[in-house]
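Email to the structure team, subject: M43 family zinc metalloprotease model.

Hi all, the expression group asked for a predicted structure before they design truncation constructs. Nothing fancy, just the tokens so they can compare against earlier work. One-line instruction: predict M43 family zinc metalloprotease, return tokens.
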Amino acid sequence: MRFFTLVWFILLFVAMPGFSQQKSRTCATELYQQTLEQLQPGIKLQQKQATEAAQQYLSQKRQGQQMRKAADLISIPVVFHVVYNTPEQNISDEQIHSQLAVLNADFRRTNADRINTPTHFADLAGDAGIEFCLASTAPDGSLTNGITRTQTSSTSFSANNNNIKRQDRGGAPAWDRNQYLNIWVGNISNDILGWATFPGMGSSSQYDGVVLFYKTVGEPPYNPFRSQFNKGRTATHEIGHWLGLQHIWGTGNESCSDTDYIDDTPNQYSPNYDCPTGTIVSCENGPYGDMWQNYMDYSDDACMNLFTNGQIAYMQAVLNSSRSELLTSVACNGGLRARFEAETDTLIQAGELVQFRDRSIGVKPSSWLWEFEGGNPATSTERNPSVTYKKPGIYKVSLTIANSEMSSTETREEFIEVTPNDLTVYPVPASNYIIIEQPAHVTLRQVELLNRAGQVIMTQEVTTRKAELKTTGLPSGLYYLRISSSEGVITKKVTIIK
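Reply from the structure team: attached below.
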């Protein structure tokens, strides 16, 4: 009788809501990378450029340039997009707040389980100087709690597509990735815990961010789901990817020849699963062995507790290069920042119209004051004004936005360049050089200098709008310039004096 009672109890426990029978960590970042490469041709090049930018920053930092003070913290605004099909998947605000607390503890190394870092790895572990805050301002300037909720007819989502990030596929659209870290939370298929995008998303910015299985968000008691992945470390792991980190064993599986490109993480043969104990030696990395306590391994949540200083330096480099626009976000502090752009080219011909757009971020402004040096009108209080520039020159533009409590100004020197409407050659007369300048939108191709007899004495290939022809050493006299451009061929007389 006792045997049947025990069996009944075990079956009942397994059947309880929230119990997970998942056996090992499954991160789909590499699988999703393959999906992106199929859906977004050219993304590997963009990611390569982001990697090079981070490495360049690290190189400059080693040389004493662009140093960030240790006391300077980076605060990253976060928006959680909860996409749910059942009430259970519509996780609570408290569970999300718990996840934020886990992230801040892990990235600042204030996590209680840091005492479990082995002594031989303790000196390698560090404070990343990165904090996370729930956005208080939405992209349209309205107030927000940093959480969106989308009910969907989709029963689950996959790393084989972007459906969870697409409103037309049952998901939720991203907020501006230059102002927010987007984290999608939903029911993920195939026992996958999450995935992330690497830096360098380029034109695929609407898919940039992290995806989490809803049962991995936060920690008990706010995370009610029983599993070895209920302490919020999946988010820590995936944000590590989002900040450019590879898995600690490298970019492949079961090999000692690949790398995670971080100097102070031991070379490791393959992932470590569950909750290891003692020393696991692989790839001749003794005496201390694999760093299975690292957030970028596959250990259970309870056994992860560190980023290395090398990993931290790389994440900081990413935040100061390809993800640097996040450093100016005001999405968490309720501020506002003036920003603008020109919809048309900022290199124009005299008399052309320029359409300006307010791209300010933060809370909604109630007033706009534009100042246009050389423009007509010279000032405007419209949000998106149109301006005409009649005279050639290089002009600055300034925008001041304000509400009842604060204001912000952005000024861009030499923002608008206005050219003449016709080909211009100067100085007149010339001496040591001749400048040939075409109007905006016209490109030079070749410039030839001919003497009075029609003989070509100098040729210069050009691929820009403006060119300089050196005439030092030529005798005084009358010459001809034969100018080939995207508009055709034209000849101009020039006089050279000494």
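The longest helix spans residues 43-62. The two ends are 116 Å apart (CA to CA). Ping us if the truncation boundaries need rechecking.
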